[in-house]
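Researcher: Next entry in the queue.
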Amino acid sequence: MRLPHQLLHDRTRVRERYALFPFEGFPPSSLPGWAGAEIRVQASPALGAKFAWYHLQLQAGGGTKQACDNRVETFFYVLSGAVLIVIDNDLPQRLTEGGFAFVPHSAGFRIDANQPSTVIMVRKVYESAVGVSTPRSIISNVSNVSPTAFLGNESAKLQLLLPDEPEFDLAMNVFEFDPGHGLPYIETHVMEHGLHFLSGKGMYFLDDTWMEVTAGDFIWMGPFCPQSFYATGPTPARYLYYKNVNRDVML
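Model: Structure for this entry, 251 residues:
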């Protein structure tokens, strides 16, 4: 937050095929069905995305209960604090920092914050496919997911939080790069991305421009937006990202 006598400049960019949002630019709002929650919608169809990305700040005792609608699937990732999650009628499970949960479109859920907590929520309409069964619910922690070297580079580690199986029409991954390392080329692909920087900083290439990014930033990348990244600074750069996968294009 700048003082009244200071000029306003920031790194926010909104373009046809991408957007970069520093966290400070998002005022909080509330949503029906959520108690004790400051909610920031960082991506939605209004932006051009085919998913919705939320940054949730929950007070102790805050949360929601949502019934199954057989349409929308939901992913949670805990940035800080701790929450209890119940999927359908299963037993409550505690998610602490790095904890995540996937709720399929065929299930309802309840979220209760044990303490002040910050949570990422990603929602999208499930895309069914002939001969493909409904995905199962998943609850785990990023610490339980073994990282793999990306394209053989031990300084670029990838963690797949959801299985790469036909039942899942989305991927949620964590990427970590040691300083000076990054993606080996400029990617261009049909999938879109939502991306939250967890820690560190670096340079992101979006469409035709290199931009500095840091912890707390959110990026949306539309289909076929050229993109790349390399880490800068003294510590590794980590980010959580979404992409749509395992489905044919709609004609």
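Model: The chain has a mean pLDDT of 96.
Researcher: Noted, moving on.
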